[in-house]
């Protein structure tokens, strides 16, 4: 499976679900993570797209099916958003968590196609610090991420990134 195929079968529906789920706006305002929700929704989308043997938590990998392994992360930032309270979050540690998942996934020999999908929020468009954090992830990933912007139902901006680990 290629990166563009995974994006094509999941992106639009996943973003629709993020934007229409009111509770996620509450999570975003508090900068709370929602990886469990993301896992359930992505599995639901994959099953609806007739992917076979979609499983959660197989060998410490968030989602697996066929010859595909997917790790999921939610990266909350401390970037200020007008109209919402400031909440401190350790963005450097969150980015390190994404890199750690990429490293672990890369060591797993059981899957040919290895992907990372992560959301970043709040993420105001053009934020000057985010590109530095993203570069750390892209350096480890070996293939550029493909950002897709969205807004939670309360207007908080975010982005979802898809990346594929480079073939060994």
The low-pLDDT segments are none
Beta-strand residue percentage: 15-25%
Supply the helix-strand structural class: alpha+beta
Number of helices: 5
| Secondary structure: number of strands | 6
Strand order of the largest sheet: 1-2-3-4-6-5
Assembly form of the protein: single chain
How many distinct folded domains? Answer: 1
Walk me through this protein's architecture.
The chain is of the alpha+beta class and 168 residues long. The chain has one domain. It is 42% helix and 23% strand. It contains five helices and six strands, in the order αααβββαβαββ. The chain has a six-stranded mixed sheet with strand order 1-2-3-4-6-5, sandwiched between helices. Strand 3 (68-76), helix 4 and strand 4 (113-121) form a beta-alpha-beta unit. Helix 1 (3-20) packs across helix 3 (35-48) and helix 4 runs parallel beside helix 5 (130-141). The longest helix is centred in the N-terminal third of the chain and has 18 residues, at 3-20. The protein starts with a helix and ends with a strand. The mean pLDDT is 92.
